[in-house]
Amino acid sequence: MSGLPEPVMGEKMSLKRKPLVVVTRRLPDAVETRMRELFDARLNHDDAPLSPDRIAAAMREADVLVPTVTDKIDAGLLAQAGPNLRLIANFGNGVDHIDVGGALERGITVTNTPGVLTEDTADMTMALILAVARRVPEGARIIPDDDWTTGWSPTWMLGRRITGKRLGIVGMGRIGQALARRAKAFGLQIHYHNRRRVPAAIEAGLEATYWESLDQMLARVDIVSVNCPHTPATYHLLSARRLKLLKPEAIVVNTARGEVIDENALARLIEAGEISAAGLDVFEQEPAVSPRLIKLAKSGKVVLLPHMGSATFESRIDMGEKVIINIKTFMDGHRPPDRILPSML
Ligand code: 8YV
Q: Is 308 a residue whose pLDDT tops 80?
């Protein structure tokens, strides 16, 4: 997006009081304790998601808002922001739930928490690939459900070997590369599509094949993993047309954002046997999940996780620490390290 003002920086917030920081969801104890020490922190003790009215009220009053992926900060809410609101310090990497362009136009800086959730999200992506290919959730239900009556059999619960298969990574940023490192160790061949080709040394280290054409890559891989952000350009990037290019044995995995895949088309193609299976940690209408996907999960064709990619104690504490650093730096009149710039939108 162009024509948007760069965030205003270097102008010390001359507050004679501690900044009023409204945090929309409960954060790890260590993070909340530090926030209470540094800021006039308004915390959400019962962790219930705030209604748009309550977010609007917070934005009228606060110097800083700390939202999460569950808060939609749209143009309507930004129009109600009070004059003190100068920073939206998002607790999370993705900022697609925030009208960042609208915020920047109003002189509100937006920051996120990149880097600290990379390894955990890549682990979860690998876990989903294995879970789907080797039918882990289905198998894990058998003994607790008392269904292991006949014992071991040579032809029972067979899954798919991943070693030697081709993994197509859509979005070769930090998380895509962290996934590629893991997948290479599992013997997968790395293929990727990205807006820009990654530096030759990284490509060589991963023995990765770059596909300028997403369509051509999709037709050739066995597993597809979505690891790109959701932006207007990536909305339904895996459209019905593109999903149809996949081999019938293909597995689709998504730990990025639900909106990047046309979820209905994916469900339809799995139902029709035109795609083998999927592992999804994110959905188009979270927390609502399509009944068709739930039905497919019950029949073992898809594995559904409730947006757990970065859900480790370590990630969430590090994310909180990043939020604090961004607020502190901004309030001290410096550029916060994780500003979202117009060129990133
Ligand atoms: C977070 C995520 O849990 O950081 C992100 O973009 O998707 C998640 O891993 C969530 O965003 C917290 O707001």
A: yes
